[in-house]
Every structure is written in structure tokens, then in C-alpha cells.
Amino acid sequence: MTTLFNHIFFGAILILRKWVIKPGLFAILTLSTLLLLSQATYAAFGPVTLKITPDDYGSETTWEIIDSSDTIIAEGGPYEDDDTTPIEKTIDLPIGTDYIFTIYDDNGDGICCNFLSGDGSYSLTDAEGTVIASGGEFGSEESTQLDIIPVSPSISIIN
After folding, report:
1. Residues spanned by CATH 2.60.60 within the chain?
2. Most confidently modeled of 86-90, 112-116, 129-133, 153-157?
3. Exposure pattern of 107-146 as b/e (b: 16+ CB <10 Å)?
4. pTM (2 d.p.)
5. The domain 41-148: what is its CATH number?
């Protein structure tokens, strides 16, 4: 039997998992990570999943993830015009590195909510399902900085 408790305390995420090893003996695994709380920087657990629903002009939409040395780690697009079929891509990102996700629109009207181009959207989530970035209403581009952080486990045995 596994139980999971999530607590947010002073900007840190503390995740406790409790396993029954045998009757009367429990192991508690504690994972502590720093959650960076600033306007556009997110701590994330990799891999990340990008979901894009293009607007009617998919040929205008591209995206990339670059690392701290400006190396392109992943990229996509352009997509087909008049095809708003959602696109999903899972991207493995090395732990302990800073990244910038940027989505571009060549026409400068984003991918959502424009009378002529339709209602596109995007979301970037980490391995635990936490939304790192999302939207669709932007001009030529929108960027989000993210950090894939290491997790340091510690195990305690309680009898």
C-alpha cells in the first residue's frame, strides 16, 4: 500500500511516500526539491510533454527548447494549415540544466483567439503533470524559462 502526501513549505516541495515493507515496519522516502518561485522560472521534473493545438495557420507556428549554452535541444513545426489536430511530443531533458521554451508565430498574432485564425493553444507539463507553461494569446513569440532539477532521496526506516 502506498500513500502520497504533498506539502508546500517556504517555496520547497516535500513529497513523502510511505510503503509497508512488512507488518509493523514502514519505509518513508522523502524527496525534497527547491521550487523556484519567480514570474517565468519553473522547477520541473523531466521529461516534459508539449501539447500544441495549432490554429488554422499551422505553417506560422514553430517552437524550440534551448539550453543555457543556446544549443537547441528540441524543436518542432511548422505545421499544416487548416489542420488543428492536437500534436503531442515528450522531450527528455537532462537534469540540472536550465532551459528556455519558446513558441513562435511568424504572423505575430499568436495561435489563439484571433477572428481569422482560430483557437489554438499549447501547454508544457513536467513528468508529474504540473503545467510549466500554457497559452496561445501572444504576439510573435512567448518564452518560459525552466529548470530540470535533481531529486535527492533519503530513506528512513520506522519500526
Report:
1. 41-148
2. 86-90
3. bebbbbebeebbebbbbbbbeeeeebbebbebeeebebbb
4. 0.68
5. 2.60.60
